[in-house]
Amino acid sequence: TELGRAIRLGRRLELANQALMADGRSPLLAESPAMRPVLDVIARVGPSDANVLITGENGTGKSLVAQALHAVSPRASRPMVTVNAGGMAEGVFESDLFGHLKGAFTDAKTDRVGRFELADGGTLFLDEIANVPMTQQQKLLRVIEIGEFERLGSSKTRKVSVRLISATNADLNAEVA
Predict the structure, then answer these.
(1) What is the DSSP letter of 31?
(2) Splitting the chain (177 residues) into consecutive groups of 10 residues, what average pLDDT does each group show?
């Protein structure tokens, strides 16, 4: 089943992550003086449980910074789940992030665990967060604020502990203005 494949993949990725990060160091290797401030922020913020927004142009290594933050966090032994939030179709957004029950909509033939549940205890990396439409951003607010959500088609509230790391190449100040 889909859930079984996801669990097996999660275990394989966890083992690979543990092998790569056995010494507890960041996967980000940099010696340039220009990178020193980035490495300092990772060292300072990484061990906290704070949610993080990473900004920068395309190709600047935002996903590497997210991986480094996860690797030096207390959640490093738990999964880091990555979602290209900006590339997600509006019709599957809630189902992909929160999961659904069989019969919740026409094509829901089985129960599905969402990305928040897969990342429980670990980190959820939402890449291209600024490309998510406002209506979908509102759906994230409750789970970000209090860690609670419902799968589509369910009235049972689920609770997760997830550190959220988001990234964007958008100029957020300009978009807010």
Answers:
(1) -
(2) 74 59 57 84 92 92 92 92 84 81 71 88 94 82 88 86 94 85
